[in-house]
Write a structure and sequence with these properties.
Number of helices: 15
Number of strands: 18
Strand content: 15-25%
Largest sheet: 9 strands, mixed
Helix content: 25-40%
Bound molecules: ligand BES, manganese (II) ion
Shape: globular
Radius of gyration: 23 Å
Length: 454
Amino acid sequence: MNLNNYIDEKHDEDLKDLYELLRIPSVSAQTEHKSDIERAAQWVAERLRRAGLDTVEIVPTKMHPIVYGESLHAPGKPTVLFYGHYDVQPVEPLELWTSPPFEPAIRGGNLFGRGTADDKGQVHIHIRALDALRQTGGALPINIKVLIEGEEEVGSESLWDYVNANKAKLKADALIVSDTSMLARGVPSITYGLRGLSYYEIEITGPAQDLHSGIFGGAVPNPLTALAELFAKLHDKNFRVTVPGFYDGVAALSRTERKALNSLPFKPKAFAKTVGAPALCGEKGYSIVEQLWCRPTLEINGIWGGYIGEGAKTVIPSKAHAKFSTRLVPDQDPAKISRLVERHIRKLLPKTVTCEFKVLSSGKPWVAPYTHPFFEVAHAALETGFGRRAVFIREGGSIPFVTQMHDTFKVPCVLLGFGLPDENAHAPDEHIALENYFGGIKAVANFYQGLAAL
Ligand code: BES
Ligand code: MN
Ligand code: MN
């Protein structure tokens, strides 16, 4: 049977199969889900075998297993490495979900559940595409290596060791990833840039223990006040980060790229509506897409300390805590930025408190040309899947593995994203549009087939 007809006929089966994966609560951050992580890895391995990959292995690591499989029976054809992740973010706060996070549900043309968009649904798109190719063609038309990890949402630490120990094994003509978004509904997109990240945690200590705020207040330092004052000083009135040297490595956008990015069909009004805030803010002098994709930021991700229980408690806490992070753009170096941030923070804090500073994770930013012939194949395939020519976008999220692969192998990285920016990744009511899930299967199958015809 013809590939596209076959795919059109399999929609019910696709979903039924995806539901199985979505029902496994493979939350990488929470140890109570360790056995679910193992189950998800096994599930993915089994599906890769069924899709025609012959050497499939579950590689144990210090944390969560990596699933690797390959099929190398297309001599003379390109070899690609497909990367994705089977782990998901925690689901809390649970009460904000309309339907349970690990019980897939369809509403209004969307499939809801944790991992539907990030990234189980998108990994499944490739599994189903490979399956369709094998069912209709008898064998896979290209050489493919598949690497699906279980630690992406917690920093991919085990993956670094694995990649460094298996460079020859992972070598390919291109890296393929589906873990990003489309610019908007109906606009297929190829992502050629991602921001990097350095993530920090600080603990600020004032008095050696909690104190009665009546007996001691007025004479002793309050670490929560120090924390609030500190964060109030990290941006200026134009919303620029005040860390000295922070912008030194930032590559300026060329006029051509700036023009291209600002002529994309991006709708600021729709964006503001998705955000739902009374008004937007951002670094002065840059458009929203530039702010999101091409400019670095500093964000506070969480602050805690003191008494937050019921009623009043008059206390001066001993400690204040915060998690915060910097999104980075080419050519900022995460290690250098971490040093600058730490130095600045220590300088700003008063002598009345001490500070423990930790870097929890980091990943380099990425941007690359899209001139390789593989991108033309991707264009044609996305047009088959979505009926419209794709646009080239950058995005603000981070996938540290992409940079690492690009640095290591210097190969083209083709990022075909089938999520949408408003699909609540990492939040309650995560979902994927069914049209993009099915369109994705068709696009990816045609992409792999098109690579064979090059
Ligand atoms: N799939 C996302 C990254 C992403 C989202 C890229 C949207 C482009 C558009 C990935 O799973 C993720 O959440 N990455 C983390 C970084 C990681 C080191 C924890 C991120 O971007 O915060
Ligand atoms: Mn992801
Ligand atoms: Mn994610």
